[in-house]
Amino acid sequence: MKIQYTSSLIAMLFVAFVSAQKLSRTEKKIVSTIEQNNTEAIDFLEKVVNINSGTLNAKGVKEVGMVFKDAFDQIGFETNWIEMPAEMNRSGHLFAETTGNKGKKLLLIGHLDTVFEEDSPFQTFEMVNDSIAHAPGGNDMKGGDVIVLYALKALSDNGLLNDAQIIVAFTGDEESTGKPLSISRKDLIDAAKRSDIALGFETSTGFNYATVARRGASGWAVEVEGKRAHSSGIFSEGTGAGAIFEMSRILHQFYTDVKGEDLLTFNPGVLLGGTFVNYDELTSKGDAFGKTNVVAQKAIVKGGLRFISEEQKERARNKMREIVANNLPQTSASVSFTDSYPAMQPTEGNLALLQTLNEVSLDLKQGEVLAYDPGKRGAADVSFVAEYVDGLDGLGTMGSNAHTPQETVNLNTIEALTKRTAILIYRLINTK
Length: 432
What we know:
Distance between the termini: 33 Å
Largest sheet: 6 strands, mixed
CATH topology of the largest domain: Aminopeptidase
Strand content: 15-25%
């Protein structure tokens, strides 16, 4: 599925490009405030990056949340830390809110957790040169959180948030969402139902792109049972193929028969097979025991599925079920699915928001902004609210190599992106 631009939208974007308005006097004050606060913003980013907040480090996630909570308290937001039940093994969420009836009601989305757990060797903020820093989670997405905070600080410092409803939602488990979703995403969805627009601050893909669509994410697992026997009997009528051959058949047919639809991808992330297999869902770690002269009796695989619509997701699942059911001799297999993130489709409302962002960017002389290819982005929290509000994502900071020990954040972009965010928010809360 490709993003389609209507002729009317193309015309609007062209008009915006050739006749962008200049910044107002108030907007110039906002820009000036952000320039004055930029060094402080980068120092704040370094502080929160240096607090480990891997998703499973609930204490660390909350510690980062409390740093942001204090900062939002100082600019007049009503803050609330929402704990998750202990059995979910996830930290809570930070919500900060102003109340009012002026203009559009906004929901600003970020997350506090990172993929780097306490045992990761990548733990600290370290400058590479005068503009780039290695930073675990600095790009994905503590940098985006800092942009939200300092954009709102600039608006608050200039007295521009009076009578505006803005909800900031920083979740504590975006990188590995707590289950059940009915609990872990309840507060985010409730906030969306009270809002008109959602803005997500996941990693930016450059000044010239924003995200109007994201693929959904779903988990899948296949478990295979074979007949344990001496390897000399494999392929015989009584012994059959064994669990590992059956798993190999299934994965190969997934690749040949399910692959192919635009924006549909699926990935087997971990595979274990042998005589005995153990896998821990909480830690995503496992082990297997087997011998070369014993036919494997157990195999498991855990994977992920990405899709642009619920219909595409169900088509893929049905094909996978059919493949899993067609077993090799003396084997059996089952497939199960776990919903995680719904898809965010490229609606007309989202594209209209893109036009507004484009106008802001042109006024700031930052260039034209286009819709980014959803096939190149992962899932994110904004997808949970796409059913209820118009939205944009990818408004966070810039960097490279997210989710790897080489992750960087480009500090030279933070000021400009904070300006863009602040002016966008200012215009939206002054639009009926």
